[in-house]
Design a protein that fits this description.
The chain contains 6 helices and no strands. With 138 residues, it is mainly α.
Length: 138
């Protein structure tokens, strides 16, 4: 038989939001891809109309996924979620623009007003608020 699990050290609180943040960030990325698809059909345009490599969109979303994760981890312990949610949305917007600027400045300028980037930033408001609300009740 295995030994019983020792009790947690006094003064150390577990951080379940770190694991949950990974799952929520992945769900955000999947939802962002779905919204991009719907917007592409409704607007009859591509998310990136400039000639770029096939991995630019994936790289931008993966970088944004990291921002979402950090936004969740830093917002959950806060007293109020609003600043963390706004910082997360701004971070997603700026990370996508920074990734575009690395490729080409004209791409960054085109992405700055893109409805796809704005949709990603708006969707980024929800994960920190939702995780904050969930872990407040626990």
């Amino acid at each position: 038989m295995s030994a019983p699990t020792p009790p947690p050290e006094p003064g150390r609180r577990p951080h379940p939001e770190r694991i949950a943040g990974l799952f929520v960030a992945v769900v955000w990325a999947a939802l962002a891809f779905a919204v991009f698809g719907v917007l592409a059909v409704l607007l009859d345009r591509d998310p990136v109309e400039q000639p770029v490599g096939p991995y630019f969109g994936l790289a931008a979303i993966l970088l944004s996924l990291g921002v979402i994760y950090l936004g969740i981890v830093f917002t959950v312990p806060a007293r109020r979620p609003w600043l963390g949610a706004l910082a997360t949305a701004a971070g997603v917007y700026l990370v996508i623009l920074a990734a575009a600027a690395i490729v080409d400045t004209s791409l960054a300028l085109a992405q700055a007003g893109s409805p796809f980037v704005l949709a990603a930033a708006l969707l980024a408001l929800a994960p920190p608020i939702a995780c904050w609300a969930y872990f407040r009740t626990r």
